[in-house]
């Protein structure tokens, strides 16, 4: 059976497993490295440690943002890997090169050849198969060209829908940062009496939670949006090259 190369997303169970693993890894990193380093910096420098990287990262909101950010990067890396290893090598490939272009194409043989191939589920090959099926049913080249258009539009919609989870998490990360801001400001106000009495350490620490969570979440969302932008460009390029490949090679066979 042909391998399903159109899967651009991690399978649901694998995705859940990856998310759980990401949560565990980030938690261990925080417990073993970041929070001990932050506590050491605060003990050594007091309120002067507010600009220390470990202190900026130490709170629960930042941990949640880092977890979601790492998970998004894994999802996007997998998509990028699928495009580079499974899709790009066949962008401009003529799958019917063994069929003479000087002769009329035997559609039944061509369909059997494509459907039995190892790459039958590849998005580019699937488009060729849909086109040939439409041509077989209608004997009309224009209808076959319409099938190409419909297939690539479906592919574009599938790729866009596959990014919905990533877009949600990128949206959620700044929201978590703002939750940290509200929590930090609320906790800082609870320390107002101590600050009036001259002990500002508690208020400074809580205000640090407020500002650091927003800082980390916004920087992380900017980075993730940049990576997603390039992923979207690569996916759009894949769709366009799939369409051009069909029009350049497949329709040449059908016009004979």
TrEMBL record:
Keywords: Cell membrane, Membrane, Protein transport, Transmembrane, Transmembrane helix, Transport. Its main location: membrane. The keyword Cytoplasm does not apply. The lineage of its organism: Bacteria, Pseudomonadati, Pseudomonadota, Gammaproteobacteria, Alteromonadales. Pfam families: MotA_ExbB. The chain crosses the membrane at residues 12-30, 168-189, 209-229. This is MotA/TolQ/ExbB proton channel family protein. It is a multi-pass membrane protein. The keyword Transmembrane helix applies. Belongs to the exbB/tolQ family.
